[in-house]
Specification:
InterPro entries: HIT-like_sf. The protein is built from three helices and three strands, in the order αβββαα. By secondary structure, the chain is of the alpha+beta class. The chain has one domain.
């Protein structure tokens, strides 16, 4: 199974079925998971949950997502931003607990999918 289809399986799964080694948190519209191939000490992925409105086809990449229904896409980007800010607070708290200080936390999009099909 490719990493991309693993991500698809994660967003289609019930959050309670994902292990604590996969799921960091969930909200009504998104899940936040540990990146399987982290590029930093704290590296998470925030993924929109798939449903009848948001399908795998429209979430292939950011360009595809923004070419879709712009209003719904922007709503989901807002949800993702909110979840990213919540994850950032968790990260900063964990930095303080583990290391006694905090450093900059960067939030962004993968420029291209990090793993192919």
């Amino acid at each position: 199974m490719s990493y991309r289809s693993a991500l698809r399986n994660y967003v289609l799964s019930k959050p309670e079925d994902l292990g604590s080694d996969i799921l960091l948190s969930e909200s009504e519209r998104c899940i936040t998971i540990f990146d399987k191939f982290p590029k930093a000490m704290f590296h998470f992925l925030i993924l929109p949950k798939l449903d009848k409105t948001v399908t795998a086809g429209v979430t292939t990449n950011l360009s595809t997502f923004l070419r879709w229904d712009k209003q719904v896409a922007f709503e989901y980007l807002h949800y993702m931003k909110s979840d990213a800010e919540a994850a950032k607070l968790m990260i900063e708290d964990e930095m303080t607990k583990q290391h006694g200080f905090q450093w900059d936390v960067f939030i962004g999009f993968h420029a291209v999918p990090s793993m192919g099909e």
